[in-house]
Amino acid sequence: MKTDVLHAVRLARLDLTLVARNTTVLFNVLLLPLLMAWMFTGAQGGAEVAGVPGGAFVLTGVPGLMLGFAVFINLVNSFTARREELVLKRLRGGQPSALAVMAGSGLGALALLLGQMVLLGIWLHRTEGVLPANVPLILLAAVLGVIVFGLLAAAFSGLTPNAEMAQITVLPVLMVMLLGAPIAFPLDVLPGPLGTVSGLLPVTPVVEMMRTGFLGADHFSSGGEALSTAGQWVAALPSIGIMVVWIGVTGLLARWLFRWEPRHG
């Protein structure tokens, strides 16, 4: 177990080094979500959304975008490229276990996401005067989001024939995340069935937990009332339950679809 942890940490450090050396990946993974956040906040103007300034509402939903870029797209590209270059095959045949290899990629993605969220927190404080109300809830949302979208990335990499096609393979999931999640708008603006479906998407519980953790108010419903720390955790329980179910679903998909070596023939 200790050996697996050490291997996972080493692989995560390698992933972060490779991202830092690739300016295109660095822009797409780290800077593009922040640029989109700036565009969304500009579109909101000074209007209030769900009882909070529009800028604060959008910025606390941006972690949903970050999951799409720093975790899902990043890992689909990484898993696919490494499979085609036989890196995954060599890793599986070496000392690290399969779990350590997957955990290493997840740890690297989590580090990228947390780095973005530090920048986001500074932005929120400087522009909106907001300090996080419940950091443990924010961290739990980040970990659950990385697990779900990391497993989903593993599954989608199995459907992706090569690294060049990865940019197309990820588009359906990215579009659903952009259009269906409450990043720039509350769920109650969607018609009944769409609102229900959106509430069950894996990105929505993460956004709601993040927003509640940052603002200290109930953003699991349309009320936006202030909550105590204990009240925030109680209100988050259904969202945590949804994420646990998604971990099971994406875990099965990853086990079924993920491939360690290129398909022959």
SSE class: mainly alpha
- Helix coverage percent: over 70%
How many domains would you count in the coordinates? 1
Radius of gyration: 18 Å
Strand content: under 5%
Order of helices and strands: HHEEHHHHHHHHHH
Question: What do you see in this structure?
Answer:
The protein is mainly α and 265 residues long. The chain has one domain (2-257). Helix content is 75%, strand content 2%. It contains twelve helices and two strands. It has a two-stranded antiparallel ribbon with strand order 1-2. InterPro entries: ABC2_TM, Nod_factor_ABC_transporter. It is a multi-pass membrane protein. It holds the Pfam family ABC2_membrane_3.
What's the short version?
This protein has 265 residues and is mainly alpha-helical. Helix content is 75%, strand content 2%. Strands 1-2 form a two-stranded antiparallel sheet.
Task: Give the SSE layout.
Layout: H1 2-21, H2 23-44, E1 48-49, E2 52-53, H3 54-59, H4 63-84, H5 87-93, H6 98-128, H7 135-159, H8 166-169, H9 171-180, H10 192-200, H11 203-215, H12 229-257
Antiparallel strand pairs: 1-2
What labels would you give this structure?
single chain; 265 residues; two-stranded antiparallel ribbon; mainly alpha; 75% helix; 2 strands; 12 helices
